[in-house]
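Q: What does the assembly look like in three dimensions?
Context provided by user:
Components: two
Sequences:
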Amino acid sequence: MATQTLDRPTAPVKRGAASRPPGQRALVASPTTWFVWAGVAVFFVFLLGILVSVVVDSLGKSWFGSWLPEIFTFSWYAQAWDRFGMAHVIGVTLLVAVVVIVISVLIGVPAAYMLARRNFPFKRTINLMFLLPVLMPPITYGIPLATVMYNMGLGRSLVAVILVNLVPSVPFVIMTMTPFIEQINPAIENAARMSGARMRIVFTRILAPLLVPGILAAAVLVLVRTVGMFELTFLVSGPQSDTLVVAIYRAMTAAGGGEPRALISSMAVVYTVTMMVILIIALRYISPTQLVARVKDSRDD
Amino acid sequence: MSTVRATKSTASLRHRLAERGVDMSLLMLVPAIVFTLALFIYPFSYGIGLTFQPNPAIQEQWGGGVLANYRAFFGDAFVFDSIWLTMRLALPVALFNVLASIPVAFKLRHRFRGKKLLTTLLVLPITLGTVLTAQGLLIFAGRQGWLNNFLIQIGLVSEPLKLVNNYWGVVFSLVISGFPFAFLLISSYLSGIDPSIDAAARTMGAGWFQRFRRIILPLLAPGLATTFILTFVLAFSVFPSARLVGDAMGETRVMALMAYRAFGEQNDYPMASTIAIIMGVVELLVVAVVLLWRSFLYKGSTGGKG
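A: Here is the predicted structure of the complete assembly.
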């Protein structure tokens, strides 16, 4: 049964479907199904190739043209760790991510609540204002913002890195939380209010527990975005405030042909492993799709 | 509300305001608004102002007084062409990501064993980040990489294909980072469509193409437009991969690179702001066209929201 469901065509083939009793699957998948699976397979080949080649490169020495490097070694990791102060860089990255998450949730969730539940003057304008930073390419507002930061003397500091990363994160939390709050039944809050609960109590005792899955999902997405955010961080960060991505980019484009390739590969592997661990842990608890719509699993027919 | 005013009701100002939705709880919006004003609206307006204060060097070379930056942008073919080069990358990639996600999301919408694993695998590239993708592409698809090695071994090509450090390198990297994102969004839109609508159509004898064309597509179209916009924004602002796997001074001289060149390498902040602002305008034009098209589409419930 299990293997058959895999290649079940969504579209019954004209004749075959009619002659089959309802509830039974076709044994041979339709051409469209094969086409889709082939596409997915090519995508995975590329993906795996990219991943594995970086890992192999980071572990190998003198790898030119052959299928595999001649010598395997861990020395690149040790070198990268010392040379680029990886402990410091990873510390900065995590610190920035955590601070950005906390602040953007604290600012974003109350705003999302108001946008989801209430009508007030200028609501559309305010909505648009929150939407713009997500829609604009980061470079567009990043360059003026970085100019302001440098003028204020904040350039290359940790504060500047946190502030610029908040710009897309807060609207992002608002955008993801608004539909999530919309689908919570308002009768629950009304009941609490009728029983005499103040706004603060409604928020902490009633809404917060209901919002936890949404907040977690939004936090994970913000985390992924912040750790991966290159453009904005790159514009304002300096040697002491570089996050991991920026540090790798700087190593790749350093004057004089950049650092040895394997050194960069090992840094990239560290980056990806960190991200994957975070994401896999997160995906075990939440499904990001629940943000756009409460998933109603399609019935099995 | 007009009756309240007409009868000069005795209700307090506070009460009347509350009737229009203005009361103390609006304070919850204040942090977000202050934040957006300070970190987005203000720098942005400042940047726009900066475009009208060109550096003396630019002014001397291009003339035009306060508009010198704009004259420089449209006059310098090296910079001006970047608009076209960016579009040539971003539009096809965004379109491809959306169109390729539809069938995949479709096939994966039903329940089957290993679905969660497959979804996780498809989403994982988000974690790779542009830098690892770039590094991987350079190694995997480079002249001596596995891909070319393999193609030569099976005799498909005799010369190694040039897949990186040009247009295609950037396209690959954008598809690898953009496709999972588009897939994730489209499959959540798809799961928001009530399956009973599809089932109803099926009981009336509609074939798969008819069901797709008449039922799913109209319900999905607004979501497709949104997804297209978001992937387009991602591709349009491509910067690190254009430098790392592209041809930074040639084929993939995108606007973001030009803006950064003025900002970081020439320290010409007014010119950098000018390029950045024009970049924003061009992008918003494309977004506006898509949104306009979307406004003609069905906007009601898709039946799947709880």
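Follow-up: Confidence is low (pLDDT under 50) at residues 1-19, 291-301 of chain A.
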